């Protein structure tokens, strides 16, 4: 019951009352230390009161709980060295990491905790010492891996076509080699090494990604933008395309260019994931994700309706015409593709001035140009501009959240020998087996001195204002001119005293 009450207090809007009641309940807890403590008992979702405060973005309760956990080592003048307990904060050996919970929640208030002590210092320590070097090395390794895969695709085994053309529009001159013909020369063996590296890399990607999907859940793993959800979809699809290409190569099945081309596009697009390691480029990846999966997905439904309607109209108009004179609409699939290009203004309106075009083509194309180019494309630009404006106001928060998510990911993937535990063991200070983070805090005495001066001047101005109100009450029955003169005199007196006070403050500063 006490643990349930603690969880309820974390969710209370009255922060002062919640903190006092929290301390009152813990004062009756017999097991204040150890696994039996009320603060360490999780709820049905696996969240302790401390983790719940972080997920809900309750910064007041979080700071209150951290003040209870800190230990002061020494103080000399304005400098103070403090040890902060990293229990439930550090992601080391934690199945449900506190940092991962913060970046995975949809509440913006929770991301503000990443800028508080000691979370800010812990993330900075992990990222600067281990996260950034490993992440840059991983980015370089992935780019070299993609270069290897691209070269294997560029020099894939092809041979001249021997069969006859089926139609005048057939433009194929090379075909895919059979498996027995693909690995005969020295260049083929060199390409085989690159293909084996590519396949091994795809298998490693699946081995690393599948356990996280089973642990977190597919909806949460792929749906969180800060955690890199869309990029996880891209890299898993890329690995599947590589394996499909391998199977088609081993079985000598024609058409391997389809999964191979998809794999090339997805693999190189995944390079944008590594932009999150840089403060200048990290927020732009989130902008791209939000635009693609937010604005563009909604816009594609409207675009599909317009393209289907006008492509059908163009096909019907040119159905009776000679396709050799204007072949952009010679069949229905080609009409869809041509209309899509016209929609995005990639090509100009097709026309052949040597022959007479149907009159309805000019009418339909005029309506299409007005609706597609002038109306819908400007609508898409306005939607993307609004998304850019919203994300730009959160760029620093989003980049910090990306850094935290990347740090937690690397800490889980890398062996323990390559990523030692951060902090100081409490045995060095007689604080048990818990781990602590040493933070040096500085208290500026001039700041407190200026605050005292400011409060004094505020009180002086308040006294003068009260005296002025008393004078106005006494002289209520005097003429309007005298009231105005008295009011102006009182204001000048207040302004003079306030000016004198700020002069003293400026001189002391």
What does this structure look like?
By secondary structure, the chain is mainly α. The chain folds into 3 domains: 5-124 and 423-443, no CATH class; 156-276, no CATH class; 294-411, Helix Hairpins. It has 17 helices and 6 strands. A 4-stranded antiparallel beta sheet has the order 1-2-6-5, covered by helices on one side. A hairpin with a 2-residue loop joins strand 1 (71-76) and strand 2. The longest helix is centred in the first third of the chain and has 36 residues, at 119-154.
Summarize the structure.
With 509 residues, this protein is mostly helical. It has helices at residues 2-10, 15-27, 49-55, 59-69, 98-104, 108-111, 119-154, 186-216, 218-223, 229-250, 257-269, 282-317, 332-343, 359-392, 395-413, 445-474, 480-508; strands spanning 71-76, 79-85, 158-160, 174-176, 424-425, 435-442. It has 3 domains: 5-124 and 423-443, no CATH class; 156-276, no CATH class; 294-411, Helix Hairpins.
Q: Return Rg in Å.
A: 34 Å
Low-confidence stretches: 479-495
Largest sheet: 4 strands, antiparallel
Strand order of the largest sheet: 1-2-6-5
The beta-strand count equals 6
Helix content: 55-70%
Number of helices: 17
Please give the domain count.
Answer: 3
Structural class: mainly alpha
Mass-distribution shape:
extended
Distance between the termini: 54 Å
List keywords for this structure.
single chain, 509 residues, mainly alpha, Helix Hairpins, 3 domains, four-stranded antiparallel beta sheet, two-stranded antiparallel ribbon
List the helices and strands and how they pair.
Elements: H1 2-10, H2 15-27, H3 49-55, H4 59-69, E1 71-76, E2 79-85, H5 98-104, H6 108-111, H7 119-154, E3 158-160, E4 174-176, H8 186-216, H9 218-223, H10 229-250, H11 257-269, H12 282-317, H13 332-343, H14 359-392, H15 395-413, E5 424-425, E6 435-442, H16 445-474, H17 480-508
Antiparallel strand pairs: 1-2, 2-6, 3-4, 5-6
Helix pairs in contact: 1-2, 1-3, 5-15, 7-8, 7-11, 7-15, 8-10, 10-11, 12-13, 12-14, 16-17
């Amino acid at each position: 019951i006490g643990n349930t009450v603690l969880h309820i207090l974390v969710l209370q809007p009255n922060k002062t009352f919640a903190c006092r009641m929290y301390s009152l309940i813990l004062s009756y807890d017999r097991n204040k230390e150890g696994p039996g403590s009320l603060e360490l008992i999780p709820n049905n979702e696996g969240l302790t009161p401390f983790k719940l405060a972080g997920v809900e973005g309750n910064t007041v309760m979080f700071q209150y709980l951290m003040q209870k956990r800190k230990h002061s080592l020494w103080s000399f003048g304005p400098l103070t060295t403090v040890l902060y307990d990293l229990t439930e904060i550090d992601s080391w050996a934690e199945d449900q990491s506190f940092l991962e919970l913060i970046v995975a929640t949809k509440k913006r208030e929770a991301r503000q905790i990443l800028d508080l002590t000691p979370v800010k210092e812990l993330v900075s320590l992990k990222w600067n010492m281990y996260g950034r070097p490993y992440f840059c090395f991983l980015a370089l390794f992935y780019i070299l891996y993609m270069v290897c895969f691209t070269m294997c695709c560029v020099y894939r085994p092809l041979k001249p076509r021997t069969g006859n053309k089926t139609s005048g529009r057939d433009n194929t001159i090379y075909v895919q080699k059979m498996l027995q013909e693909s690995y005969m020369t020295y260049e083929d063996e060199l390409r085989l090494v690159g293909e084996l590296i590519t396949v091994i890399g795809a298998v490693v990607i699946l081995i690393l990604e599948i356990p996280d999907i089973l642990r977190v859940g597919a909806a949460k793993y792929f749906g969180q933008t800060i955690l890199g959800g869309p990029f996880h979809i891209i890299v898993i699809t890329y690995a599947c395309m590589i394996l499909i290409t391998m199977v088609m190569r081993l079985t000598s099945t024609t058409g391997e260019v389809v999964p191979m081309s998809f794999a090339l596009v997805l693999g190189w697009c995944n390079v944008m994931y590594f932009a999150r390691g840089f403060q200048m480029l990290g927020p732009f990846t989130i902008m791209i994700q939000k635009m693609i999966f937010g604005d563009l997905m909604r816009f594609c439904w409207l675009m599909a309706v317009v393209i289907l309607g006008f492509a059908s109209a163009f096909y019907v108009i040119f159905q009776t015409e000679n396709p050799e004179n204007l072949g952009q609409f010679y069949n229905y699939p080609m009409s869809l593709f041509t209309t899509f290009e016209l929609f995005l203004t990639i090509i100009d309106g097709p026309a052949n001035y040597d022959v007479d075009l149907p009159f309805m083509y000019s009418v339909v194309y005029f309506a299409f140009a007005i609706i597609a180019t002038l109306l819908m494309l400007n609508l898409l630009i306005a939607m993307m501009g609004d998304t850019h404006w919203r994300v730009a106001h959160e760029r620093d928060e989003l980049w910090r959240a990306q850094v935290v998510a990347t740090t937690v990911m690397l800490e889980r993937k890398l062996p323990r020998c390559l990523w030692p535990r951060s902090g100081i063991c409490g045995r060095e200070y007689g604080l048990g087996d818990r781990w602590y983070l040493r933070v040096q805090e500085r208290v500026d005495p001039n700041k407190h001195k200026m605050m005292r001066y400011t409060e004094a001047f505020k009180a002086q101005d308040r006294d003068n204002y009260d005296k002025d109100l008393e004078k106005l009450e006494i002289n209520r029955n005097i003429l309007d001119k005298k009231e105005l003169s008295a009011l102006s005199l009182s204001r000048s007196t207040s302004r003079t005293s306030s000016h004198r006070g700020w002069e003293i403050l400026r001189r002391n500063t």
